Amino acid sequence: MIMAMNKAHTVKKGTVGRLIKTLFTFFPVLLPFVLFLVVFNAIVQAAPAIFQQNVIALIEKALKGQKTWGQAAPGIWKYLTVLIVLYVLALIASFTYQRLMAIITQGSLAKFREKCFKKMESLPIRYFDTNAHGDIMSIYTNDIDTLRQMISQSFPQLLSTFISLVTLFVIMLYYSIILCAVVILGMILMLIVTKALGGRSAKYFIKQQVTLGETEGFIEEMMNGQKVVKVFNHEKQALKDFDAVNEKLFEASRLANTYSNILGPILHNMSNILYVLVAIAGSSLLLLDAPNISLSGMALSISIVVPFLNMTKQFTGSIGQVSQQINAVVMGLGGASRIFDLLDQESEEDEGYVTLVCAKEENGEIVETNERTGLWAWKHPHKDGTITLTKLTGDVVLDSVDFAYNPDKQILHNVSVFAKPGEKVAFVGATGAGKTTITNLINRFYDIADGKIRYDGININKIKKADLRRSLGIVLQDTNLFTGTVLDNIRYGRLDANDNECEAAAKLVGAHDFITRLPDGYNTMLTNNGSNLSQGQRQLIAIARAAVADPPVMILDEATSSIDTRTEAIVQRGMDALMLGRTVFVIAHRLSTVQNSDVIMVLDHGHIIERGNHEALIAQKGQYYQLYTGAFELE
Amino acid sequence: MIKTLLKSVREYKTDSIKTPFIVTCEVILECIIPFIIAKFINKLQAGQVTTHDIFFYGIILFVMACMSLFFGSWAGITCSRASAGLAKNLRHDLFESVQGFSFSNIDKFSASSLVTRMTTDITNVQMAYMMIIRVAVRAPLMVIFSFTLAYMMGGRLSLIFLFTIPFLGIGLALVIKNAMPIFRTVFYKYDKLNASVQENINGIRVVKSFVREDYEFNKFNKAADDVRKDFTKAEMILAFNAPMMQFCLYLVMVFTLSFGSYLVISSHATILNVGQLSSILTYSFQILISLMMLSMIFVMVTMAAESAERIVAVLNEKSTLTNPEDPIYEVPNGDITFNNVSFKYSTKADRNALENINLHIKSGQTIGILGGTGSSKTSLIQLISRLYDTTEGDVLVGGHNVKDYDLVTLRDQVAVVLQKNELFSGTIAENLRWGNKDATDEEIKAACELACADEFIELMPNKYETHIEQGGSNVSGGQKQRLCIARALLKKPKVLILDDSTSAVDTKTDAKIRDGFKKFIPETTKIIIAQRIASVQDADQIIIMNKGTIADIGTHDELLARNEIYQETYYSQNKKDGDDHGNE
Question: Are residues A195 and A308 in the same domain?
C-alpha cells in the first residue's frame, strides 16, 4: 500500500492514450455515442445566451418603437421556439448521456476488475512472492476506484468544457474581438493560478494518500496484534505512537483540502473581477464611442456588452469547474498506470502437451475413459500423430537439479531424489535448506535451472501445468481457507464431490469430530481465512480438502505442524490408508511425523547430506541422529 | 449517533463554528456583487454612465471581489482544519476505544474491519463534515439571498422560483429514497468482493495447486458483475439529478422570457423593465446551481451516514471487562484456584468451552497442560489473567478473585505468551521493552539469556538493535517464540503462562529454557501448554484437557500408568524409542 502510493508520483507516458483506447475497446459503440451527446449538450448549452440576448434586444426595440405586444410577439416567439427546441434537445441529450455514462463507468470498472483478476490468476507464483500482497490488493481497493470519478466526471467535463470554451470563444469573437481579448487575458491569468494552486493541491493530495497508507499499515499491525497489546498493558503507549502518525496524516489532509478549497473562491472571484473588467472596458468603449472590431461587423452597443458579460461568466465558470477535476485526474492517472503495470506482467507460460486422463485396464492395455476410476494415465501425443498412454504410477525423479530464485543465490545444488511408486519420501532440514523449494519445482511453481525432473519417465516440462498440478495433492505450510462453508472448503479439492464424499474425507483425516461440534456442523460459515478455528483445525480442513481430491501423488508441507501428536497419529493412519500404493512427499519439522517414511532426506543449504530410512539414519549417527537426540537445533 | 460523533470535534469547535459565519459573509458578498453589477448595467443601458461612475463602480466591485475572495479562502482554510481535525480526533477516539476492548470485544470485530473503519469510513465522514459546515450552509443561504435579491430587483415575476422548489424537492427526495438502499447493499457486496480478491492473493498457491484459476475467475466475475449491476442501477437513478435541474432552469428561462417580455412590452416597462428581466435570468441560474449543490450534499451525507454508523458502533462498544471500583493493586503470590468454573465465548453459544473446572495450583509450581486440538487449553489459561470473564464460578490468583484486581496489575503479574503471538516493527530491544519499558540493557540481556534468545541475537549484525519487520517476518518461528518469552519474562511476573510457545524451538533449547525457569525464577508459577510430552513431563502436575473438561491431573509417572490419552500421546511421540535405544 505504502509502496504503491509512493509510485503514485510517476505516471508512465502514454497512460492517458492507453486508458482512452481501452475504454473505447470496452464500449466501441456506446462510448462514441455518449461523447457525441456530451459535445452536443455543451454546444446547445452555450447557444441560448445568443437567443436570450436576441429576445432582450427585440424587447428593447419594441419599447423604443412603442410597439404593442401583439406586434412584437411573433418576432419574440420565433426566437423562443428555437430556444425551446434547443432546450428539449439538451434535456434529452443530458438525460441520455447521464444514464449511459453510469453504464459506461460501472461497466469499465467491472471490466478492469475482471481483467486484472484474470491476469492475476494467470501470473506465476514468482509475482506473488516478489510483490507485497498489500500492493497487489490496493489495485483493487484503490486504483480501480480512482478511475470512477475520472471516467464518469473528469473526462466528460474536460471534453464539454473544451467544447463550450471554443463555442463561447467563437460567439465572443462574433460580437467583439477587443472585449474578447480582455477575457482571454483574464483566462490566461486564471489558468496560471489554477496550475500553481491546483498543482500544489495535487501534490498534497498524493502526500495525503501516502500518509494514509502509512497510517493504515500502522493500524493494521496494531489491530492484528491487539491481543498482545492487551496482555502487555501496552495500550497507552500504542495510543501515543498512533497519535504521532495520526498528526502527520492530519497535517497532510488539512493542506490538501485547504489548497483545493481555496482554489474555488479564488477562481470564482477572479472571474468576478474579470466580469467587472469586461464591464468597465465595454462601458469605456461605449463612452468613447470607439469603433468595434468583430466578426459580425456589428457596432458596439449595449445590446452587445450585456450578453457578452453573461458569456464571460459562463466562460470563466467552466474553468472553475475543470479546476475541481484536477485531483481526480492526477489520482486517476496514477491508478491507471498501476493497473496497466499489472496487465503488462508476463503470464505463466505453458508449453506442455501431455495431459492427464482417467484410464481403465482392458485386456492388460491402458484405455482412456471418461469415468473416474482411480486409475490415471498420461496421454502423450507424438509428432507422427500417434498417442501413447502411460499409466500414472507416481514415479518421481529429480536428477541433478540446480535452482535459484535469484541468479546470485543458488538454493539447490545438484539435488537428486528418486521416489518410487508408493513410497513415502520425507525432507528434513533447517529453514531455508530448500525443502519447500523442491516441492515448488515438482509442481512447477518455479522452473529448474539445470537438471531434469521426470514424472513416470516424462519430463515434467512436457506435461500441461494444469494436469501436472491436478495429479499432485498439496497441503501447504500456510493454510488458506476460502469464505464459504466448511463443506465448500473441503469440496474445493474436487468440485464434483458430493456431500458424502466430503464427509468421508473429513472422517478419514480425523476432522469429522471437531466439525460436527461447530455451531452449524459442516455448514458452518468460514470467513477471514477461518479465523474462528484454531490453527490445527484449519490444517485438518486443508488436509481433508486434499484428501477429497484423491490425487495420485501427495505433497505434505508441514501439513500437521499445528496438530497435536495424538490427532496427528489419527491423520497419519487415514492418510496412509488413502495413499496406499501412492507416492507421498512429506516435509516436517517434527521428526515423529517423518519417522515411518521409506526414505528421509536431510537437507542442508540446498545439498542432500544424508538419505535413508529412520533406522539407517540413526545408525549412521550423523546430522539426523543429532536432530533426533535433540543435540542439534533446527531453525 | 450525531451526538457521539460531535464529541470528537473538541479543539476544532472554533473552526467548525467560525466556518458557517465566514461562509455567510462570502455568500452575502457573492450575491451583492451581481446586484451592483446590475445597477451599473442599468445605468449603462440608460446611457447615464460617466467616467466617474466607471471608476466608482470598478473600485467598489474590485474591493468586494477581493473581500469575497478573502472570506472564501478563509472559510476554505478553517473548514479544512475543522474537518481534518474531526477526522484526526475520531481516529484517535476509535483507536483509544479499541485499546479499551477486552478479548471478547476484539473477537467481535475483525482486524480488517477496524482498519476500514479507521481509514475509509473516517475519510467519508471527514468529507461529509466539510461539506456540511461549508456547502450545506452556503447552498441554502445562496438560495435565500439570491431569491431575495431577485425579488428586489425583478419584482414579482421572480416568484416563479417558488414553483420549482417543491418540484425539485420531491424529485430529489425520490432519487435519494430509491438510490440509497441500493448503495447500502452494494457497498456490502463490494467489501465482500474485495475480501475474495484478498483470499485469492493470499491463497494463490492453493488456487494453482488445485488448478482452480478458471473456477475462481468465474466466481469473481459473477460477484463483480453483481456489483456492477447494482452500482449502475444506483448511479442511473442519481443520473436524474442533473437533467432535473436543467429542466427547472429551462422552464424558468422560457417562462421568464415569454411572460417577462409580454409584461415589459405591454406595460411599457412600467411593471417590469429590461434590467429586471436580465437580473432574474442571472439569479435563476445561481439559485438552481445552489439547489443542485444541496442535492449532492444530501447524497453524500446519506452515504457517509453508513460510515458514521460503523464508526459509532465501535465508539459505543462497551468493554465487557471493567476495572472494579476499589481494585487491589498487589498480587501477593502465584497461587491459582478455579472454583466450579464454566465458560463460553458468547452468550449465544450453546456449548460451554469449559465445563465445571476445579483446580488448585500452588505458587511456584510448574504445571503442564496437554490436550488435543480444540480441547480448550487456551480458554483455560486466558481466564487466569482475566482476558475473558468466567461464565460461572470464580478464578482466584494469590487468594483474590481476579475480578477484584486492577487489570493492569493483574496482567503485569500474570504474563501470558500467546499462541498466536506477534512482534511489531521496530528493533529487538524496542519489542522486548513492551514487557517493561524501563528495562535496562542488562535486564533485557538477562531475560534473553533465560529465554535462550541471546545466542542468536548476539549473532545478528546489530544485535539488540536489529530491526524486526512487521509481524516478525525476518526471524524464524523458533526465534520469534523465544523473543516473545523473553518479552514476557521482562515483566518479572508472579505467574508465567506459555501457550504452546516453544513448539518451533528444538527440544534441547526447550529443555534449557525449562531448566532456566527452575533455577532462576523458582517463585514464579509456570504454566506450560505444550504438544510435546518432553516439554511437560518434568512438571509438578500435568493437566490433561479433553473437550473442555479436565480429564486427569497427575505427574508424568502417574498419568503414564493410568491415563489413556496421555499414554497414546506419549507413544505417538516416542514410538520407536523402545526399539532403537533406551529412554533418555
Answer: yes
pLDDT in tens, B266-286: 877 777 777 777 777 777 777
Rounded Cα distance, B572 and A591, in Å: 11
Of A275, A443, A561, Cβ closest to residue B209:
A443
- B303, containing H or E segment: helix B274-315
> Which cell numbers hold the place of B221?
466475475
Cell reading at A415: 539435488
What's residue A49's pLDDT? 65
Contact B372, A564 (CB under 8 A): yes
Residues of chain A with pLDDT under 70: 1-11, 46, 48-50, 297, 431-432, 630-635
Residue A172 lies in a domain: yes
A506 assigned to some structural domain: yes
Is A59 in Cβ contact with B261 (below 8 Å)? Answer: yes
Q: Is the dihedral of CA A11, A16, A18, A23 positive or negative?
A: positive
Which of A451-465, A522-536, B296-310, B369-383 tops mean pLDDT?
Answer: A451-465
| Residues B246, B247, B253: CA angle, nearest 5 degrees | 90
Cβ–Cβ of A261/B75 closer than 8 Å?
yes
Quick one: how far is CA A621 from the chain centroid? 53
- Sort B330 into a burial class: Cβ within 10 Å, 0-12 / 13-18 / 19+: exposed
Of A558 and B94, the structure prediction assigns the larger pLDDT to B94
**Are the beta carbons of B253 and A87 separated by less than 8 Å?**
yes
CB pair distance less than 8 Å for B62 and A273: yes
**Cβ-based contacts of A632 with chain B (< 8 Å):** 506, 508
Query: Of the candidates B103, B239, B373, which has its C-beta nearest A227's C-beta?
Result: B103
Q: Do A220 and B211 touch (CB under 8 A)?
A: no
Among candidate residues B252, B254, B257, the one with its CA nearest the CA of residue B277: B257
Cβ <8 Å between B115 and A223: yes
Q: How many domains does chain A have?
A: 3
What pLDDT score was predicted for residue B353? 81
| Residue range of the domain that includes A552 | 396-628
Compute how many other C-beta atoms are within 10 angstroms of the C-beta atom of residue A455: 26
Specify the fold of B336-420+493-576: Rossmann fold (3.40.50)
Query: How close, in Å, is residue B340 to chain A by CA atoms?
Result: 23
User: Domain B2-315 in CATH: superfamily?
Assistant: ABC transporter type 1, transmembrane domain (1.20.1560.10)
DSSP-based three-state secondary structure for A409: strand
Contacts of A62 in chain B (CB under 8 A): 265
pLDDT of B13 higher than 60: yes
pTM: 0.80
Q: Is the pLDDT of residue B566 over 60?
A: yes
**Same domain assignment for residues A320 and A450:** no
ipTM: 0.83
What was the pLDDT predicted at A630?
62
For A51, which residue in chain B has the nearest alpha carbon? B257
Element (H, E) at B414: strand B414-417
Q: Are residues A107 and A209 in the same domain?
A: yes
Which amino acid is residue A599, in one-letter code? V
On chain A, the residues whose CB falls within 8 A of the CB of B212 are: 492
CB-based contact B235 A102, cutoff 8 Å? yes
Residues in chain B, overall count: 584
How many CB atoms sit inside 10 A of residue A34's CB? 21
Task: Test A91 with B100 for CB contact under 8 angstroms.
Answer: no
pLDDT tens-digit series, residues A407-462: 877 888 888 888 888 888 888 877 667 788 888 888 888 888 888 888 888 888 88
Q: Looking at CA atoms only, how far is residue A246 from chain B in angstroms?
A: 6
